[in-house]
Amino acid sequence: MAVEISAVYQGELHCDATHGPSGQQISTDAPTDNGGRGEAFSPTDLVATALGTCVLTILGLVSARHNVDLSGTTVKVTKEMIQSPVRRIGRLATVVTYPASVQLDDEMRSRLESAARHCPVHQSLHPDIDAPIEFVNAGQSA
């Protein structure tokens, strides 16, 4: 299945992108440390966003198949850029936090963690990007 995304450069490091199937739009701006105003997601911010939302989506798919409700589960992705040898994403540290109400046995926890680490975005990242995923339960200390 192919999905077309189109984008238009608006000048001053701003772009507007349109999702072909839905017509939904997002805007991007370069980050302040790279000449932009930081008024919107940067393109590399969207990579971090894609990783986080992909992990949550995969967790949702797997948990639904096993009648486990993960509503309220959150993800935080911390993106770190590096400058050498070229400016690029160096690290995407991801923390998945289950609500205190979610109780998982060891088998389900293992199944979910494996699925998250095999989400399509995580699997698409260049191997030079450090992309750990940590799982915590809000009801327990990390």
TrEMBL record:
Signal sequence coordinates: none
SUPFAM superfamilies, per database record: OsmC-like (SSF82784)
InterPro entries, sorted: KH_dom-like_a/b, OsmC/Ohr_fam, OsmC/Ohrsf
Record's compositionally biased regions (Polar residues): 21-31
Highest taxon listed in the record's lineage: Bacteria
Transmembrane segments: none
Pfam (any one): OsmC
Location of the region described as Disordered in the Swiss-Prot/TrEMBL record: 18-40
Protein name per its UniProtKB record: Putative redox protein
Annotated source species: Aporhodopirellula rubra
